[in-house]
Model the fold of this input.
Amino acid sequence: MTLFKASKRSMVGFSFPAMPLAGFLQSKYILLMPLYAITMGLDAKAIAGIFFTTKMFDVVTDPVFGILSDRYETPWGRRRPWLVLGTAILVLAIYMLFIPTGQVGSGYLFGWLVVVYIGWTLTTVSHTAWALELSSDYDQRTDITGWLQVAAMIGMMSVALMPALMEQFGTPTHADKVAAVGWMLVVLLPIAVFVCLRSLPEPTSPPPTHIGFRRALAIVAGNWALLRLLAANAAITAAYAVVQSLFVFFVTYTLMLGDRTGFTLFFLMIGGMVFIPVWVKLAQHFTKHATMQLAVLYGMVVPALMFFLPPGQLWLTALAFLFVGAITSAHEMLPRTMMADVCDHDQAASGSERMGLYYALLQLSSKLAAGLMASGIYMALSWIGFDPDAGAENSQEMIENVRYLIVFTPIAAYLLVLLLMWKYPIDRKRQKELRRIIDERSGA
Done:
């Protein structure tokens, strides 16, 4: 069993890229989709179709890159070169998407979304696979993903804080807010990756065992823990994508707080930050899958607060979103630390460590779920008659329907997670047995 030791300073530096990466992920639906719907005037159905179609590229690119990153060792490591390349691509694409010049159309949005997803895949798979390889201990992996989640929540809070500060000192347009966030990400991401590269070495990995494509595919397809985790992760992501996609419309038109969306979003992120140590401690006291069940139970009950929120009540809204945000830190942290244990199951069966592939599959499930749900929500807005471009000119009935979507749609997704995690096969005892098999095979 490999125990990992590093100073807090090193872990802060290593986790730094999670901050701008999460900031981008947060702003993609909350800020970017409304930018192209409101400012650029694209049809809601067209935006939904674009976000759905571009996700289809990830079905190929994510697992292919995961396999490549696991298989090929360079003098600089397996993860570092891809992390640098992905960062360069991501910075360019973020600039083009967040700070478009003039009036742009569907083709522009489609093309740069494809590029941004390629950069995102290279960067996030490399960084997270590197993190999950740092330790083989069941509980220590939760600590490591907890560090990543703290950085991620700071990034999400920064995305919320930037518009909130702009609202406090002026009357910025939505395009102004998006551009400010874009510049922040473009500047911060390369700095964060540079600090990460200097903070920790990559752990050495044994040479991969060649097992053949059919056997490798059979091992993956027969890994029921993996399939259940992927489905649960997709459901969790879909639930949060609903909140992200409808947030601006809900706060602006249903709650009539259009000049305080950034302020409200900031409280959503504070809730996630405060609860990180709670989820870590629960996962280490019980099990990871039991903690996921507790998290989604919480997520099914507390967001009902939004159903009763009256319009125009800023501080009451902020307090409600503070409690609603508590589950946001569980969305990313728990599936990632569980995936490291699933990879142990694969390594015990195949003899080859394939953390890159397995995290790529986890990320693919998130992308597909987020893309499908975000597209579905925008199509649902069209079906119920809500026009994002019309804003407050929509009928009161249509505006109130946004409340029903943002409150009740995630509950169904969380119920599915609850069922998928029932009697999940990899707990602390099983993971230690898997590591014993792996260590005996390698002669550790």
Summary: The first helix runs from residue 8 to 15. The chain is about 75% helix and 0% strand.
